[in-house]
């Protein structure tokens, strides 16, 4: 089947590549000339494990091409995926200007072509958009003279860092359609990815749009909830790891997305929680839980800095802090809303210096901070000249450092562990002379 994917970011590039992998002919479109030139030259603008191999294979097989020519890409396509950004407006609402620009461009290219039956030509909204957007886009498409073009909603649930696995073997695929034939066409496209226990779910567009926000909001809620319990553990002298075991074995609760940390970041949870609150407000509904989740997360992003300030009696000026991990989570180079950046800003504002290491995200941080920070070539290198180590992102390479070497290099052997990565080894660290702070380990 012929597919066009507009937007070659984390979602669009993965979608296009994975659709090509099962034999479709895919044209990816982007309007960022630098990104496009890189992709056309065989490069990959983002880090996502395994993506380079899959892109190469499908490019070489002639199933995956990249262009800046939207009109040419969509004219021959049955499915036109819209995977552009939907950033947050200052009031928390979702900015749909990129989605609308693509829809207008698609319509301009399609309106002169012969009209077909429903399902012959489908704009598939993959970007995360608030409930009601499919309806508004459908009206826009009709106003643009393209009543023969259908508009489906197909929210994406992939996780950066495991995006290929998530797309190829999804827990479920959700589509929102107004016409049975559109659902059937999408069912055919997604058949290679779905099984009995990985179902293809067809529903109304409003329900599909809501499903995406509800999914992200519940995950964000779990994180904010366990973060607050962890903070209470610190105050009460309880150990969050013990508490997690105690509650997680209850099958109604479980362990997933229930680990405390420095607050959630990324391009989705913060924006989507606010987007849902704003959409609800427009409909006259108050989402008190989501409001609290967002507020708790803002506070959580300051917890590590609070522990550091307290330990050093507020005397941070002139000290250097080693920060391990900059990406908002491991196995990605994405630093959007990353908690490491909140910490770094606070350290710099307090007059401290920061020496960082991240396996993939340093270049993106450097593009923002330049020489305000130091960038080490390896984890241990970040410790040289540093007073203390602050672990923010749990990359696998940070799991088992040589603690003898860590102690030798740090001016004061203090570890602030934002992910409780070394919590189970705490007594060894204390024996070795470290001072150790985790999140929710019974001390502030
Ligand atoms: P991104 O910023 O990485 O990529 C968006 C791309 O769209 C960019 O390459 C940009 O140049 C391109 N673009 C913008 N306007 C364009 C236009 N008019 N024509 C062609 N290209 C255009 O964004 P992303 O992280 O891939 O997210 C895309 C959408 O998917 C968002 O709505 C997001 O909320 C949603 N989403 C993201 C994730 C994730 O993990 N990143 C997961 C699920 C859903």
UniProtKB/TrEMBL annotation:
Query: InterPro entries in the record, alphabetically?
Result: 6-PGluconate_DH-like_C_sf, NAD(P)-bd_dom_sf, UDP-Glc/GDP-Man, UDP-Glc/GDP-Man_DH_C, UDP-Glc/GDP-Man_DH_C_sf, UDP-Glc/GDP-Man_DH_dimer, UDP-Glc/GDP-Man_DH_N, UDPglc_DH_bac
Supply the EC number(s). 1.1.1.22
Could you tell me what reaction this enzyme catalyses?
A: UDP-alpha-D-glucose + 2 NAD(+) + H2O = UDP-alpha-D-glucuronate + 2 NADH + 3 H(+)
The kind of enzyme this is, by top-level EC class, is oxidoreductase
- Which residues belong to any copy of the UDP-glucose/GDP-mannose dehydrogenase C-terminal domain? 322-424
What pathway does the UniProt record associate with this protein?
Nucleotide-sugar biosynthesis; UDP-alpha-D-glucuronate biosynthesis; UDP-alpha-D-glucuronate from UDP-alpha-D-glucose: step 1/1
User: Does the record carry Oxidoreductase as a key word?
Assistant: yes
Q: Which controlled-vocabulary keywords does the entry list?
A: NAD, Oxidoreductase
Q: Which domain of life does the UniProt lineage start with?
A: Bacteria
Similarity comment: Belongs to the UDP-glucose/GDP-mannose dehydrogenase family.
Q: What is this protein called?
A: UDP-glucose 6-dehydrogenase
């Amino acid at each position: 089947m012929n597919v066009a994917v507009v937007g070659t970011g984390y979602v669009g590039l993965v979608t296009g590549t994975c659709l090509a992998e099962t034999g479709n002919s895919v044209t990816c479109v982007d309007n960022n000339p630098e990104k496009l030139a890189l992709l056309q030259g065989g490069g990959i603008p983002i880090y996502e494990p395994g993506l380079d191999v899959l892109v190469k294979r499908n490019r070489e097989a002639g199933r995956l091409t990249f262009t800046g020519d939207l009109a040419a890409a969509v004219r021959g396509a049955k499915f036109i995926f819209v995977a552009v950004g939907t950033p947050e407006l200052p009031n928390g609402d979702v900015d749909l200007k990129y989605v609308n620009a693509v829809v207008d461009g698609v319509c301009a290219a399609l309106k002169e072509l012969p009209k077909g039956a429903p399902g012959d030509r489908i704009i598939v909204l993959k970007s995360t958009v608030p409930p009601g957007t499919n309806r508004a886009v459908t009206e826009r498409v009709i106003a643009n003279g393209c009543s023969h073009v259908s508009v489906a909603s197909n929210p994406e649930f992939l996780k950066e860092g495991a995006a290929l696995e998530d797309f190829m073997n999804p827990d479920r695929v959700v589509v929102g359609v107004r016409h049975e034939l559109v659902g059937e066409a999408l069912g055919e496209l997604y058949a290679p990815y779905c099984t009995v226990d990985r179902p293809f779910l067809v529903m109304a567009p409003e329900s599909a749009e809501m499903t995406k926000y509800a999914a992200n909001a519940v995950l964000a809620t779990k994180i904010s909830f366990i973060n607050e319990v962890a903070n209470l553990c610190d105050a009460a002298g309880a150990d969050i790891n013990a508490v997690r075991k105690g509650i997680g074995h209850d099958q109604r609760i479980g362990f997933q997305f229930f680990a405390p940390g420095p607050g959630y970041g990324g391009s989705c949870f913060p924006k989507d929680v606010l987007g849902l609150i704003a959409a609800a407000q427009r409909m006259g509904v108050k989402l008190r839980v989501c409001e609290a989740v967002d507020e708790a997360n803002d506070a959580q992003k300051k917890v590590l800095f609070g522990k550091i300030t307290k330990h050093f009696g507020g005397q941070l000026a002139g000290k250097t802090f080693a920060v391990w991990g900059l990406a908002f989570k491991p196995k990605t180079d994405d630093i959007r809303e990353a908690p490491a950046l909140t910490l770094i800003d606070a350290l710099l504002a307090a007059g401290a210096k920061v020496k960082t290491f991240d396996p993939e995200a340093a270049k993106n941080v450097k593009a923002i901070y330049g020489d305000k920070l130091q960038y080490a070539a390896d984890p241990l290198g970040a410790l040289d000249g540093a007073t203390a180590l602050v672990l923010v992102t749990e990359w696998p390479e940070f799991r088992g450092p040589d603690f003898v070497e860590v102690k030798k290099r740090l001016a004061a052997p203090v570890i602030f562990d934002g992910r409780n990565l070394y919590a189970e080894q705490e007594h060894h660290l204390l024996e070795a002379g470290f001072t150790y702070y985790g999140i929710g380990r019974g001390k502030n």
